[in-house]
Write a structure and sequence with these properties.
Number of strands: 4
Strand order of the largest sheet: 1-4-2-3
Distance between the termini: 42 Å
Mean pLDDT: 86
Oligomer: single chain
Largest sheet: 4 strands, mixed
Radius of gyration: 23 Å
Number of domains: 2
Shape: elongated
Length: 276
């Protein structure tokens, strides 16, 4: 069991004190001004109540909980009593509830990733975990792992190269994208985990359409993805991912099928396709 040396005390937080505390707000989640406005209004009207929730700093003096309360104190110009904790375990934000649950992107942002990279990786990790556990790719982490922020952080720590995959995805066209960035990140990362060196080339062709031979597997999967987007079709996501993986396998082997369309279409929701 870890040593627990955090200390909590009830303090009168003035706008000046709040502003000083906010200087230690590095890498926290994106500020919600609507929440700040609501808190600020409650403070001005004298409706703010003291609860167990307050302000928390980790053992590196970094603010990990309470930025909205502090911003509201500054905005309202009022002084309120808040429970202030110091020396919290840096991993505690995994279970903190501050009136709005932290998303995986929020947690990865606190861990130091840029917002867009954090958002892509946070959404890609469930696909990676389910795939690596032998399940059909899914947005939800399996029960064995737990759909928690801690599981997300642990995957990132064990697979830091996924950051490079997310960085690659940010360089691809974003407007009218035919594949979600999280799926592209998942694909890029899984191809590289196989130690194949054609992840950039495959994803570039898939996402941009540049240098794609007519009639190839990549050409056909692009047609399918574009049709889904334009026609607003509801193809099951795991099927889409399986077809992309199959298209990659054909691409990787350098195979040119007579009818790649029919080959890809044979993939159903009951199939689990793996990178060859």
């Amino acid at each position: 069991m870890k040593n627990f040396s955090a200390k909590t005390e009830l303090l009168l937080v003035t706008p000046q004190v709040a502003a000083e505390m906010l200087k230690h707000n590095a890498g926290n989640r994106r500020l919600s001004m609507s929440r700040v406005d609501k808190y600020s209004q409650d403070m001005k009207l004298g409706n703010w109540k003291i609860t167990h929730q307050g302000i928390a700093f980790d053992n590196n003096k970094r603010l990990i909980d309470g930025q909205h309360r502090l911003e509201a104190v500054v905005k309202s110009g009022t002084s309120i009593y808040l429970n202030v904790s110091h020396g919290m375990d840096g991993e505690v934000f995994d279970v903190l509830d501050t009136g709005g649950n932290r998303s995986k992107a929020d947690v990865l942002g606190i861990a130091g990733l840029p917002p867009r990279i954090a958002k892509i990786i946070g959404a890609a990790i469930p696909y990676c975990v389910t795939y690596e556990m032998g399940h059909a790719t899914s947005k939800a982490l399996p029960k064995k792992v737990g759909n928690t922020n801690k599981a997300t952080l642990e995957y990132l720590q064990a697979n830091p190269n996924i950051i490079e995959s997310a960085s690659f995805v940010t360089k691809m066209p974003r407007r009218d994208a035919i594949v979600k960035e999280s799926i592209s990140c998942f694909m890029h990362h899984q191809i590289r985990r196989k130690r194949y060196d054609d992840a950039d080339e495959f994803l570039s062709q898939l996402l941009t359409g540049a240098e794609v031979p007519s009639g190839s597997a990549v050409f056909e999967i692009r047609k399918t993805l574009i049709s889904n987007k334009i026609g607003n079709l509801r193809t099951i996501e795991s099927v889409i991912i399986n077809r992309i993986i199959l298209a990659y396998n054909i691409f990787h082997k350098g195979t040119f099928l007579k009818n790649p369309y029919q080959t890809l279409r044979r993939i159903t929701s009951g199939d689990i396709v793996r990178i060859a």
